[in-house]
């Protein structure tokens, strides 16, 4: 996935969260579930998904790993994920 697409998607999520603060908690909780294992050991030292895992998730959910989720799609997916049982 191109870095531009990731930045564009992240900016869209930030704008959405500023306009709809109640969605921020759902996004944060769902994002925490996707974090890379032992994220504190590798730069950039933030709890983000492993790029390979993220590409896999996009490919299986959207059919195209190069596509970026819209803010509305990300919020809907985050809300849905929080209704599912956690694996750990």
Give an overview of the whole structure.
The chain contains four helices and no strands. The relative contact order is 0.19. With 88 residues, it is mainly alpha-helical. Helix 2 packs across helix 4 (71-83). The chain has one domain (3-83). It is globular.
Low-pLDDT sequence parts: none
Helix content: 55-70%
Main beta sheet strand tally, sense and closure: none
Query: What integer value in Å does the Rg equal?
Result: 13 Å
List the domain count as a whole number: 1
Shape: globular
What percentage of amino acids are in beta strands? under 5%
Number of helices: 4
What would the average pLDDT be, to the nearest integer? 83
Structural class label: mainly alpha
* CA(first)-CA(last) distance: 28 Å
In total, how many beta strands? 0
* Run of helices and strands: HHHH
What secondary-structure arrangement, pairings included, does this model have?
Blueprint: H1 3-19, H2 22-33, H3 51-62, H4 71-83
Short description:
This protein is an all-alpha fold.
State the main characteristics:
88 residues, mainly alpha, 4 helices, globular
